[in-house]
Task: inverse folding
């Protein structure tokens, strides 16, 4: 009975765009690059205007989708013997099965992704959002806590379309979710290696030590790298640090310490970084988009130090061809005599797929001389 009713509703005439059409804005582009770090409110608001579409979203297709989803939810609520979802509810197999039958998560995700791209003036990396990983709508609701407090996906869609403040918090929540690795001092042993290496490999007086934090995420490691280098070269040289990441919202948050979905994180982040930005000109740091799997554009100079943490051999980059290309692209950016370091906190399953020795062999295959380090792998590009 339920199958026939669910199918009957799914067959109702709702003229929707195709499942693959997310409604990309014709004027979408990459954000203005590079970003210079600034926590000034005027700079943040100016940047947000370039990044987000303000005010209510007007989109007939999204309106129809929201009506359809609410109708599907009503059917689900009528037949659910478990009661409706609420925050903290322990999900069972039966709950998930019924939710997927009445509220296919793929359809909800397509609708949310259309809303996402209609909300942005830049092209998002949809594959990096948490909504792509949810097995059912109920699992996705759990991941969206504490922002979503009711289980009707159509209602959620309408609320996000109407309220740009809630929409902004939702966007940051799905692209920058709470997860391990987003903290300072994550790799202290690597920091010790860098300090020691810099003390033993000084450049001539007045030289500039150029550094890259590849796949920098929200920038915690970038600022830590800048602090280490700033302290190490004091008295004999200058420095510059660039951070690159693929996701535009990560890029914005890294540069501006902006986390509208997590005020405590924003306050702690800015408090940690402020002393560095007070001590040195902010223009010594920059953040821009970069893709490890693509050759970087020529810049006219190489990097003395490249750090690439939490990526190689993990969920985002583990296929052999991609790993080989990614390492080759990093090595190409390294100046002769420069050092490349990579560490991670991946669980044992990923370590079985891409071992420490595999990563070390990739550095050797890329032409680097390996260094024995406590955390991760490292290699130096020969001078000749």
Result:
């Amino acid at each position: 009975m339920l199958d026939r009713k669910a199918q009957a509703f799914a067959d109702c005439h709702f003229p929707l765009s195709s499942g693959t059409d997310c409604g990309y804005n014709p004027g979408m582009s990459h954000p203005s690059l590079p970003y210079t770090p600034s926590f000034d409110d005027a700079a943040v608001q100016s940047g947000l205007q370039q990044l987000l579409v303000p005010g209510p979203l007007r989109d007939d297709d999204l309106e129809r989708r929201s009506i359809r989803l609410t109708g599907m939810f009503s059917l689900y609520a009528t037949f659910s013997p478990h009661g409706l979802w609420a925050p903290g509810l322990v999900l069972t197999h039966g709950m998930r099965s019924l939710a997927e039958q009445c509220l296919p998560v793929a359809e909800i995700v397509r609708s949310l992704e259309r809303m996402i791209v209609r909300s942005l003036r830049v092209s998002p990396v949809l594959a990096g959002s948490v909504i792509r990983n949810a097995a059912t709508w109920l699992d996705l609701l759990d991941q969206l806590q504490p922002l979503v407090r009711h289980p009707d996906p159509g209602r959620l869609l309408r609320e996000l379309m109407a309220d740009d403040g809630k929409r902004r918090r939702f966007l940051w929540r799905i692209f920058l979710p709470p997860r391990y690795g987003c903290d300072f001092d994550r790799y202290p042993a690597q920091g010790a290696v860098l300090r020691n290496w810099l003390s033993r490999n000084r450049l001539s007086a007045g030289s500039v030590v150029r550094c890259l934090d590849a796949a920098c995420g929200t920038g915690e490691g970038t600022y830590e790298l800048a602090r280490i280098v700033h302290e190490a070269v004091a008295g004999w040289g200058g420095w510059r640090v660039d951070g690159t990441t693929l996701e535009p919202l990560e890029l914005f948050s890294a540069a501006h310490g902006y986390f509208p979905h997590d005020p405590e994180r924003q306050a702690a982040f800015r408090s940690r970084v402020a002393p560095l930005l007070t001590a040195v000109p902010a223009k010594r740091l920059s953040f821009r988009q970069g893709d490890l799997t693509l050759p970087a554009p020529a810049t006219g100079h190489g990097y003395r130090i490249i750090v690439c943490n939490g990526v190689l051999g993990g969920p985002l980059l583990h296929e052999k061809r991609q790993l080989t290309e990614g390492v080759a692209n990093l090595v190409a950016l390294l100046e002769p005599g420069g050092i490349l370091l990579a560490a991670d906190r991946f669980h044992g399953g990923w370590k079985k797929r891409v071992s420490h020795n595999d990563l070390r062999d990739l550095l050797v295959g890329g032409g680097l001389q390996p260094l024995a380090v406590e955390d991760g792998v490292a290699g130096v590009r020969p001078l000749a």
